[in-house]
Amino acid sequence: MKRVLLIVGGGIAAYKALDVVRLLRAEGVSVRPVMTRNAKEFITPLSLEALAGERVHDVLFEPTQESEIGHIRLARDTDLVLVCPASANLIARMAHGLADDLATTLLLATTAPIMLAPAMNVRMWEHPATQANMAMLRDRGVNVIGPDEGSMACGEVGMGRLSSPEVICRSAMATLSRHDTLKGRRIMVTAGPTREPLDPVRFLSNHSSGKQGYAIAEALSARGAEVVLVSGPVSLPLPAGVTRVLVETAEQMLHACEAQLPVDAGVFTAAVSDWRAKALSGQKIKKNGAPPSLELAENPDILAQISRHAQRPSLVVGFAAETETVLEHATAKRLRKGCDWLVANDVSKNVFGADNNAVTLITAQGTEEWPLMRKNAVADRLADRVAQFFTLS
Ligand code: CTP
What we know:
The protein is of the alpha/beta class. It folds into two domains: 3-179, Flavin prenyltransferase-like (Rossmann fold); 181-392, CoaB-like (Rossmann fold, 3-Layer(aba) Sandwich). It is built from 14 helices and 21 strands. The strands form six sheets. The protein has an eight-stranded mixed beta sheet, sandwiched between helices. Strands 2-1-3-4-5 form a five-stranded parallel beta sheet, sandwiched between helices. A two-stranded antiparallel ribbon has the order 6-7. Strand 9 (196-199) and strand 10 form a beta hairpin. It binds cytidine-5'-triphosphate (CTP). Keywords: Decarboxylase, Flavoprotein, FMN, Ligase, Lyase, Magnesium, Metal-binding, Multifunctional enzyme.
């Protein structure tokens, strides 16, 4: 039985959480309710308990509640945390990592996917503070449903209405069902730039932030895959449940990847430096009149080597960074590298370090243009496609 931890925030829309509970229960989902202090100003714990068939949890340190089920277990024993309605205050506390009541403590302690259904006055929703908090949460992979546009209890009209309980329930069910679509699969992901030393203080590298690769590792792991992330130097937090192997150079990345074989799939997002210094200087290269000439040697092509490896994964996905005639170059690159799918993006459009990405998926069947979306959304869509590949194969 799937489990949802439902956090009800304070707001006039709190009564709609009762409908959400009813709908989730009808889908056979068990619902464990948590209320903030403000939520109790709008609905009673008793109505929530009656519908959920379980007592409401509301205090952080209360001897009887803690001995029955501690807050860390509450946070862990669930497949999804649904915050409905998510008030501006709760969103702000969550974005800033506060843990000043049971609800925010659970949000901080959980490793389950989190889904927010915001509801508030239109001005509060549009306020830059709320928008900045939402951007922060989206970046961390929090799913957001709504809010919708319409007239509100306060008499104003605009964005801020809670999405309908039916839509919220459907989104929750979709997240719950993809939770284990990749269970039992081992997947390797490369990410970030590589660094090729010239001497003890200098190196050749590029602008890759690693964001897209890290988001993909996270999305695959969220679907139950065992994910190994072979990463160059980046400053990103390690997604929950993912194992990371840190490397610096292309050669180290290749060896780290080979050491992970066999895997079911490999997703190669790393921006591997194509060249390294032919001879590495053991000492810092000094200025002595003329600038030194740099002789380069070609690095191994990790994607191409894994694609042609005796232990080739069943699905190999490459990425292509192009600045011109994207489709043409990327289609040729897919064949040259021997990978099954190639995700092409136009890096002339400020992709490095950005949060959005517009990509084209190229497979043997043809090409598919995906609209401009957040890197997290690209990752989700790609992870769903990977899951589909294994279901169909
Ligand atoms: N790649 C790799 N090892 C390399 C170079 C690239 O594994 N030495 C992988 C990347 O991770 C990516 C794909 O190959 O999945 C394409 O990378 P890209 O930089 O677009 O291609 P290049 O091979 O460098 O081709 P070119 O520079 O000619 O566009």
